[in-house]
Write a structure and sequence with these properties.
The structure holds 2 protein chains of 2 kinds. Chain A has no helices and 11 strands. Chain A is mainly beta. In chain B, the strands form 2 sheets. In chain B, strands 2, 4, 5, 9, 10 and 11 form a 6-stranded mixed beta sheet that branches. In chain B, strands 1-3-8-7-6 form a 5-stranded antiparallel beta sheet, with no helix packed on it. Classes of the chains: A mainly beta, B mainly beta. At the A-B interface, β5, β6 and β10 of A face β4, β5 and β10 of B.
Chain lengths: ~120, ~110
């Protein structure tokens, strides 16, 4: 079974631009979660989707948004990029929407650099 | 809000030494998961603990859930260089709750 894939793997953007990252979950997984990882803040939860509905949201500004499609693929968008948005963005898929009893499978991440 | 403390944040050990890290919560947890992230890699699921006092072993790794379900520990016996990485504890508190990762403990092993 193929793992979680994320595209692109690396991205360089300038301040003020917007960016869209994509995540394809493991086949059969309907839950997709997004995380931001930085050296200073560690792994922080962005949001979680299940069956095209956002089920949970972390403490990030409205510039961060996401969506999930009917095939469970998910995208996240960051508008008006700031230098502090430079991070590794990880996507994880799981069997259950709230993920409480199921492990999450992480993708390799998208390394975003904002200049 | 709910706080999860992972202590220590960094640990350096000599290969062959034992290593223990702890994850402490301010409130009772319904379950806890542990993940490992190798340098340059992504988090990989290790184990899930659900029951009070539960102990699970994976080769040289021993995971324990506290009796009060407020803390968990990871013990590695006779560390090897392959154990290098960051270990995260992760938990949910119930339906519709946010998934929270501890800050992680970064382990380095001197050969």
């Amino acid at each position: 079974k193929a793992g979680v894939t994320q595209t692109p793997r690396y991205l360089i953007k300038t301040r003020g631009q917007q960016v869209t990252l994509s995540c394809s979950p493991i086949s059969g997984h309907r839950s997709v979660s997004w995380y931001q990882q930085t050296p200073g803040q560690g792994l922080q939860f962005l949001f979680e989707y299940f069956s095209e509905t956002q089920r949970n949201k972390g403490n990030f500004p409205g510039r961060f948004s996401g969506r999930q499609f009917s095939n469970s693929r998910s995208e996240m968008n960051v508008s008006t990029l700031e230098l502090g948005d430079s991070a590794l963005y990880l996507c994880a898929s799981s069997l259950a929407w709230w993920g409480r009893s199921y492990e999450q499978y992480f993708g390799p991440g998208t390394r975003l650099t904002v200049t | 809000g709910q706080q999860v403390m992972q202590i220590p944040q960094y640990q350096h050990v000599q290969e062959g030494e034992d290593f223990t890290t702890y994850c402490n919560s301010s409130t009772t947890l319904s379950n806890i998961q542990w993940y490992k992230q190798r340098p340059g890699g992504h988090p990989v699921f290790l184990i899930q603990l659900v029951k009070s006092g539960e102990v699970k072993k994976q080769k040289r790794l021993t995971f324990q859930f506290g009796e009060a379900k407020k803390n968990s520990s990871l013990h590695i016996t006779a560390t090897q260089t392959t154990d290098v990485g960051t270990y995260f504890c992760v938990f949910y508190t119930g339906a519709n709750s946010k998934l929270t990762f501890g800050k992680g403990i970064t382990l380095s092993v001197r050969p």
